[in-house]
Design a protein that fits this description.
The complex is a heterodimer. In chain A, about 0% of the residues lie in helices and about 50% in strands. In chain A, strand 7 and strand 8 form a beta hairpin. Chain A is globular. By secondary structure, chain A is mainly beta. In chain A, strands 2, 4, 5, 6, 9, 10 and 11 form a seven-stranded mixed sheet that branches. Chain A has a four-stranded antiparallel sheet with strand order 1-3-8-7, with no helix packed on it. Chain A contains no helices and eleven strands. Chain B is an all-beta fold. Chain B is built from no helices and eleven strands. In chain B, the strands form two sheets. In chain B, strands 2, 4, 5, 6, 9, 10 and 11 form a seven-stranded mixed sheet that branches. Chain B has a four-stranded antiparallel sheet with strand order 1-3-8-7, with no helix packed on it. Chain B is globular. Chain B starts with a strand and ends with a strand. Classes of the chains: A mainly beta, B mainly beta. At the A-B interface, strand 4, strand 5 and strand 10 of A face strand 5 and strand 10 of B.
Chain lengths: ~110, ~120
C-alpha cells in the first residue's frame, strides 16, 4: 500500500499567519493517464472531513482561495495564506492513484 | 443539497454482526460510486470499502475482506455495510462518502459509531 507521510503532525499558528503542510508518498502518485490523484481534506472538531483540494492543486467549489496545493510525483504541499479561525482542525492528504486509497496521518492546526 | 445520513451503529460483542445504512439525497445516487471510510477513536482515516455505480464491482481493504460486505439499493438511494465477525479493532466511526471523478471523496456523512466490546 502507498504510505503518505505528513509533516508536521502539529502546527501552531496565529490568525493571519501563513502555514504549509507537507505530504510525502512512498511512491509516485502520477497515474498512467497523466493525472495525479492527490487530495487534501480538512476535518474540523466533531465534524466529518471536507474536500479542499483535488488533483494536487484544484480548489473544490466554495473553498476559499487562501488554500492552495502544489507538488508532483511524491512530494506535495498544502499552503494556507493567512490562517483564519475556521481553518483550525486536522488536515489529511489522500491518494487515489493506487488501490487501496490511503490517507496521511494528519496534521493538526491549532492556535498559538 | 447533497446529504448522506448514516445509521445502524452501536455497541456489539466480538464475533457478532451489524449492518450500517447510509441514506443519500440531493443528487442522483445511481450515478456515483460510494465508499465507507472509518476512523478509530483519536486516530486517522482509513478506507474500508467501495462500490461501483451499479453495485457490480466492490473493493475492500485486506483487513475486512471476507467479513464485511458493501452493497447498495439504487431504488432506495441507500448504501449498506454488512459487518460480520466483528473484532475489537473494528471499533471506529464509520463514514459513508460519495466518490466523484476526479475529486475522489467529495461529500461525507456525519458518521456513525461502532463499538465492538464484550
Amino acid at each position: 500500500d502507498v504510505v503518505l507521510t505528513q509533516t508536521p503532525p502539529t502546527l501552531s499558528a496565529t490568525i493571519g499567519q501563513s502555514v504549509s503542510i507537507s505530504c510525502r508518498s512512498s511512491q509516485s502518485l502520477l497515474h498512467s493517464n497523466g493525472n495525479t490523484y492527490l487530495n487534501w481534506l480538512l476535518q474540523r472538531p466533531g465534524q466529518p472531513p471536507q474536500l479542499l483540494i483535488y488533483l494536487v492543486s484544484r480548489l473544490e467549489s466554495g473553498v476559499p482561495n487562501r488554500f492552495s496545493g502544489s507538488g508532483s510525483g511524491t512530494d506535495f504541499t498544502l499552503k494556507i495564506s493567512g490562517v483564519e479561525a475556521e481553518d483550525l482542525g486536522v488536515y489529511y492528504c489522500v491518494q487515489s492513484t493506487h488501490a487501496p486509497w490511503t490517507f496521511g496521518g494528519g496534521t493538526k492546526l491549532e492556535l498559538k | 443539497e447533497v446529504q448522506l445520513v448514516e445509521s445502524g451503529g452501536g455497541l456489539v460483542q466480538p464475533g457478532r454482526s451489524l449492518k450500517l445504512s447510509c441514506a443519500a439525497s440531493g443528487f442522483t445516487f445511481s450515478n456515483y460510486g460510494m465508499a465507507w471510510v472509518c476512523q478509530a477513536p483519536t486516530k486517522g482515516l482509513e478506507w474500508v470499502a467501495s462500490i461501483s455505480t451499479g453495485g457490480g464491482n466492490t473493493y475492500y481493504r485486506d483487513s475486512v475482506k471476507g467479513r464485511f460486505t458493501i452493497s447498495r439499493d439504487n431504488a432506495k438511494n441507500t448504501l449498506y455495510l454488512q459487518m460480520d465477525s466483528l473484532r475489537s479493532e473494528d471499533t471506529a466511526t464509520y463514514y459513508c462518502a460519495r466518490e466523484n471523478y476526479p475529486q475522489g471523496f467529495d461529500y461525507w456523512g456525519q458518521g456513525v459509531m461502532v463499538t465492538v466490546s464484550s
